[in-house]
Write a structure and sequence with these properties.
Distance between the termini: 9 Å
Shape: globular
Number of strands: 15
CATH class of the largest domain: Alpha Beta
CATH topology of the largest domain: Rossmann fold
Number of helices: 16
Structural class: alpha/beta
Helix content: 25-40%
Number of domains: 2
Oligomer: single chain
Strand order of the largest sheet: 6-5-4-7-8-9
């Protein structure tokens, strides 16, 4: 079952690809660009620019070039180093999960290029997950890069779901929460999205740089109280909250968005569907349960294993597939990520059972480790004891990666150039 779980994940990664998504939803024929249901007559614009940001920025720009040709130009901001660069594009190697100097430079370059665009121009935004840290410029010049990083770390370690984290990040940024679209106004805009956020919250993707913001400054102040963030923020950020000096982001009635369109071409749902196909081919009865999205990892582990055991009573072999992300409130500086933490919690709960659990990120990187995720089963704890490894210590220290690396249970794909949230595959006989 361990190999079956890995094969299901590999199939999902391969078939939920950006190239295949663009072949289905984005194409260009005789100068007419189709993006899902919209048509853009490229020759009717004075010129077209491409702004690509996120972990999949280069992959998306490459897929667009395959459909449109090499006539476009723009900027690619990504945390992934591409094997080659497209002609006509300026590249930035930015930071993730926290911004770096290149993140600031990339934002400045995009803002400068966009502010010069007339109403006769078309701006194509290619947006994928990870964009929140990859493209960044603080709204207040008093917030230094070091302060920005400290703010991000406080948010990422708070245990808050991504939509709440991004609500705060939007209001601290000059490019998030629709402000990048604000800079491109009055040009016509279309955003092509490869989503790593819940389907019902598209403006959380990369903190919604081109979309109306559904969150408010009041939400930010409430979240700061809820997660006790003021005691964790650096002085420059804390001062903005203390004075309640955050500025509101543009909303849906802002004229900035009158000539803007947004289309999701790939999301976590695609990965779930492809994983389900592979599991059925392998002979498993498949159920899908995404209800634990944004749950604490321990609660999610209890829930999904309970569902799997119920399924096994009705049919064997059983497969439960779950998409989205679990949350982990990190209190120790170990090496790992939410997928490894979730899987390690599962390993304790399935010891001795004929159950296998895979949890991995479709971007190929889990937390601060080099693994995408891991596979565990009923033998994991016994194998660990034989090697003198303590699962409970690894769990409490948030240090799952060395534990799983020693067991050979990690999934090492390297950065995939894609980002469709996490995938959990649970199998049982």
């Amino acid at each position: 079952m361990r190999e079956a779980a890995r094969e299901i994940f590999r199939h999902a990664l391969s078939n939920a690809s950006i190239r295949k998504a663009f072949e289905r939803h984005v194409n260009c024929d005789r100068g007419v660009l189709r993006v899902r249901e919209d048509l853009f007559h490229l020759h009717s614009y004075s010129h077209a620019l491409v702004m690509a940001l996120g972990k999949a920025a280069h992959t998306m720009a490459e897929a667009l070039a395959e459909q449109v040709g090499s006539s476009l130009e723009g900027i690619v901001a990504s945390s992934v180093e591409p094997a080659s660069q497209l002609r006509g594009y300026r590249y930035f190697r930015c930071g993730h999960p926290t911004p770096n100097e290149e993140s600031i430079r990339a934002a400045a370059a995009m803002l400068k290029m966009l502010q010069a665009q007339p109403a006769s121009a078309l701006v194509i935004f290619l947006i994928s997950g990870g964009g929140s840290s990859i493209l960044e410029k603080p709204i207040d010049d008093e917030i230094t890069l070091a302060d920005l990083i400290a703010t991000y770390q406080a948010l990422l370690h708070s245990g808050a779901p991504i939509a709440e984290i991004n609500a705060v990040r939007k209001h601290l940024s000059a490019v998030k929460g629709g402000r990048l679209a604000q800079s491109a106004f009055p040009a016509q805009q279309v955003s092509i999205l490869v989503s790593d956020v819940p389907d019902n919250a598209p403006d959380a993707l990369a903190s919604g740089p081109t979309m109306p913001d559904s969150s408010t400054v009041e939400d930010c102040y409430q979240l700061a109280k809820k997660y006790d963030l003021l005691n964790q923020f650096p002085a420059s950020t804390r001062e903005l909250f203390a004075r309640q000096a955050l500025e509101e982001t543009p909303k849906s009635d802002d004229p900035v968005f009158h000539d803007s369109r947004w289309w999701t071409v790939l999301s976590n749902q695609t990965a779930i569907e492809e994983a389900s196909v592979a599991a059925r081919r392998a002979g498993f009865l498949v159920h899908v349960d995404n209800s634990c999205d944004d749950w604490d990892y321990e609660r999610a582990a209890e829930h999904l294993l309970s569902r799997l055991r119920e399924s096994r009573k009705q049919f064997s072999p059983a497969c439960l597939i779950s998409g989205g992300e679990v949350t982990v409130k990190v209190t120790k500086a170990g090496i790992g990520g939410r997928n490894q933490q979730f899987a390690l919690a599962c390993a304790e709960k399935i010891a001795g059972e004929n159950i296998t659990v895979l949890s991995a990120g479709t971007d190929g990187v889990d937390g601060n480790s080099s693994a995408a995720g891991v596979v565990v089963d009923g033998t994991t704890l016994d194998r660990a004891r034989e090697r003198g490894l303590d699962a409970r210590v690894a769990l409490e220290e948030f240090d799952a990666y060395p534990f799983f690396k020693a067991l050979g249970d990690t999934i090492e794909t390297g950065p995939t150039g894609n980002n469709l949230r996490d995938l959990r595959v649970l199998l049982a006989y």
